[in-house]
């Protein structure tokens, strides 16, 4: 079976099926649209049938610590790592759990992190470069006070936040340039607890992020005082406001409130 995702070619060999050690003829069958099924030859329906995909190549990525892949798309792999000897690293100090960005064409890896821990919650991939040569966007949250923020004029988020806002966590965004050097990193948050939980690229060029905050001083709130959304504490219950930030307007919109124990 041959498919062409993102302009490339992917060949999936026919599965290998067997029953009681005997091979069973198996092939793919196109069902219409983007769906395919498996057609199996004669076999004993009262006994177990094993249908295995044929894997022609397999690779492992990681080191001695805990490593997780969060997203992969043509040319790039993104995840988190705790391995000090993570392979292919060309830039970035490594303490705790950090973000890694791996370029499959070169085998190079960039580590993005601080002295604390970073958690990836979302990745946006437009399929083509957007803004000024960026190929992806990462969102998450961190307790590191020393992320390598490096906003420049060429950043899609020029003029944003270079310092940790406060609280237990701040959100962060990372923009991935085509050559990985350097990724553009910014904090997102105020003096409370803030997390970026989703990110996206609108119309192939405008970055947007969304998340939750308990900060009454969340940056660039558009037109509505955060206090109107009951931010703060009621007994032992935190009140969270969902925020949406649009890079094109550099406004933040409080969306709604919810309770979190």
**Number of distinct helices:** 0
The overall strand count is 21
Please estimate the helix content. under 10%
Question: What's the number of structural domains?
Answer: 2
The ordered string of helix (H) and strand (E) elements is EEEEEEEEEEEEEEEEEEEEE
Whole-angstrom Rg: 23 Å
Spatial strand sequence of the major β-sheet = 8-9-11-12-10
Stretches where pLDDT falls below 50 for ≥5 residues?
223-239, 247-261
**What's the rounded overall pLDDT mean?**
77
Taking the alpha carbons of the first and last residues, their distance comes to: 50 Å
Q: Strand-residue fraction?
A: over 45%
Structural class: mainly beta
What does this structure look like?
The chain is mainly beta and 261 residues long. It folds into two domains: 2-52, no CATH class; 67-260, no CATH class. It has no helices and 21 strands. A five-stranded mixed beta sheet has the order 8-9-11-12-10, with no helix packed on it. Strands 17, 18, 19, 20 and 21 form a five-stranded antiparallel beta sheet that branches. A hairpin with a 2-residue loop joins β8 (67-73) and β9. It starts with a strand and ends with a strand. Residues 223-239 and 247-261 have low confidence and may be disordered.
Short note summarizing the structure:
The protein is mainly β. It is 0% helix and 47% strand.
Topology:
Elements: E1 2-3, E2 10-11, E3 16-19, E4 22-24, E5 26-32, E6 35-40, E7 50-52, E8 67-73, E9 76-81, E10 89-91, E11 98-103, E12 109-112, E13 118-124, E14 134-142, E15 170-177, E16 184-188, E17 194-202, E18 206-213, E19 232-234, E20 237-246, E21 251-260
Parallel strand pairs: 10-12
Antiparallel strand pairs: 1-2, 3-4, 3-7, 5-6, 8-9, 9-11, 11-12, 13-14, 14-15, 15-16, 17-18, 18-20, 19-20, 20-21
